[in-house]
Specification:
By secondary structure, the chain is an alpha/beta fold. The chain has ten helices and eight strands. Helix 9 links the parallel strand 7 and strand 8. Bound molecules: zinc ion (ZN).
């Protein structure tokens, strides 16, 4: 390259760097605890936000492997979206404390708690944490309920508008588009699962109750005796009796749960084990919340259809 052209190229590169820097700086840095929350944040924030999730799609949201890099990510965040209802109790509080970031401290506009405004199911009347139960404030696995997600999306849009008032109209517009798509998809998912209303299912953890409630499925039992307590032989023997008595033919598992245990129970009951991750990115071609739900509903309908 001739010196003059070189100079021109360098100048252009510099302009590009400055421009990129400016647009990156203008974006709100959003951290979501889990990819499902991150996906909804992307839909609402569009190009005005950058989103990272702390948990991997294949990780148990109750037991995420906390890393020093998470502290750095949280330290730089403009907003944090958490599931709440103590979903992340086992790993998020120490990360937050070390991140020393007042923008995402409790009560700040940058702190978004998804469970706020959600009608939580299974709120215990009395609770003894020593028994190991991890659902102390009610069931925190509500993201697979489209009606709850509508509330969460509104909550996220409202917080984004507070943090970044200049782009409030954009967040509102994105929320409108998200809701329209959610309504259309919800109708599709209802239609696909309608033939299986009343179908009896078994899950590993108590993580499908909102889906069952919304789509009219009946959960017979869980392989875990209590949320967060590993299945015991005595409990599994009871589950097998119940499955045979109720003719439950599918066992739902997520990637971080013990599939081998589920397979053992399935062999003794003539049931199938269905892989139904709840996080976008865990199954192929599921980058968004909509892809995730499409895949989940389809796997469930296919599994229940085969068993009919
Ligand atoms: Zn749980």
């Amino acid at each position: 390259m001739r010196p003059r052209n070189l100079l021109k190229a360098a100048a252009l590169a510099l302009i590009a760097i400055v421009a990129t820097g400016a647009s990156a700086a203008a974006q709100i840095r959003v951290v979501a605890t889990t990819p499902d929350l991150g996906s909804v944040a992307k839909e609402i924030g569009g190009d005005k936000v950058s989103v990272v999730a702390l948990a991997k799609p294949t990780e148990d949201p109750h037991y995420v492997d906390a890393k020093p890099s998470h502290i750095v990510t949280l330290n730089r965040a403009d907003a944090l979206i958490e599931g709440g209802a103590e979903l992340e109790l086992g790993w998020l509080p120490p990360l937050l404390e070390n991140s020393r970031n007042s923008r995402i401290s409790a009560g700040a506009p940058g702190r978004i708690v998804a469970s706020e405004g959600i009608k939580l199911l299974e709120i215990p009347t009395s609770f003894d944490r020593s028994k190991g139960d991890v659902h102390s404030l009610g069931n925190p696995h509500f993201m697979i309920d489209p009606v709850s997600v509508r509330i969460i999306a509104r909550n996220i849009a409202s917080h984004f508008a507070q943090i970044d008032p200049q782009n409030a109209a954009t967040y509102n517009g994105n929320l409108g588009r998200f809701n329209a798509k959610l309504d259309a998809k919800f109708a599709e998912w209802q239609k696909e699962l309608a033939p299986y209303r009343g179908a009896r299912i078994v899950t590993y953890h108590k993580d499908f109750i909102y889906l069952a409630d919304r789509f009219g499925l009946t959960i017979v039992d869980e392989l875990e005796p209590k949320p967060g307590i590993a299945p015991s032989p005595a409990h599994l023997a009871q589950v097998i009796i119940k499955m045979k008595a109720t003719n439950a033919k599918v066992i739902l598992v997520q990637p971080f749960q013990n599939r081998r245990t589920a397979e053992t129970v399935a062999r003794q009951t003539g049931a199938s084990v269905l892989d139904v991750p709840q996080q976008p990115g865990a199954a192929p071609n599921t980058t968004s919340y909509f892809d995730l739900m499409d895949s989940l509903v389809h796997t469930l309908a296919t599994g229940l259809g085969t068993q009919k």
